[in-house]
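Protein modeling request. Please complete all fields; requests missing the sequence field cannot be processed.
Requester role: graduate student
Desired output: 3D structure, token encoding
Chains: 1
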Amino acid sequence: MSDADLQAQAAKKDAEDELAGKRGEFVLDDTVYLDGNSLGALPAVVQARVADVITRQWGRLRIRSWEESGWWTAPERIGDRIAPLVGAAPGQIVVGDSTSVNVFKALVAAVRMARDSAEGRDEIVVDATTFPTDGYIAESAARLTGCRLVPVAPGEVRDVLGPRTAVVLLNHADYRTGRLHDLPGLTAAVHDAGALVVWDLCHTAGALPVGLDEHGVDLAVGCTYKYLNGGPGSPAYLYVRADLQPRFDSPLPGWNSHAEPFGMRPEFEAAEGAVRGRVGTPDILSMLALDAALDVWDGVSIEAVRAKSLALTDFFVECVRAYVPEGRVEVITPAAHGERGSQVALRCADAGDVMRRLVERGVVGDFRAPDVLRFGFTPLYVGFADVERAAGVLARTLGDATGR
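Delivered output (404 residues):
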């Protein structure tokens, strides 16, 4: 297919895109920004909202804002705003701390719940291909609880499950390749073995339907600065299924998770519900920036987001194959829609240098050692013309013999 054909196809797809109007709700420029799977773009509403938090809520109301501005209940309130995006009913998500801290809470609490149900459960199964911090946290949680760590590829999880399995920690999507793992099937397999599962949703929440309640997920964690566009270092979240909340025994009990936080009693008594996942004083500035950022989701169907995500990634692969010389890159993201997240990863021998030159030419993705070019597609603000342009710039950067 010719350049003109692909450009015309991009224009037609953009004209028919029901989410195209959302692009205007973000602060963007002429750059093709394909790194929303690392840091989402800034929603325009955030600037004024944060200015109000600083000048009025903090500047004038000061301590009164914990009550009058709703600061105290922000972790649960914002959790309820995230809930529909991951398929959860209200009252099961609390926002706060980092993904790493929430992984630790979830894993240790899961081991404790598993041991309450059956003796001999002394193994934590972890995705061997996981983002490194999940592996580090899992190893520490294993040492703390006296468990044995069992690292395996997601496709091998079913082979290692048994009466000793306490909890399984899995990523919904592989951060390198964008491969989407079988959340419904693996969750069911873990439950059949009598164990609990913790899912890391960092690379899927806000990009595709997750269905936490529908599939009976026990616990889940995720960041908010990728597809949820909450800002650099924005707080993460923790999901605890409603029926497990009375048994959720956090390894980090803090005054914010106390049944009577202002009672200042020396003995700990856990609060009811998802509040048990809180620890200390929430980071109000970044939390309320996230709250504002979530406004862009008003009226948006996550199913429509998924449909556009698949269309964008399909089109990008089509353009790459049309523009880039054969053999110069290898697509390592699965072609099957059921196995693909919202990114496309390309293996390239000199990937680090290629990505540096792409950024200089106005196409921003990222590089993962040793040889992966990673492009994330955020359907709320990425269009099909962006996709075609990115593939063309990639081809020129790689020295396309046709002189593109």
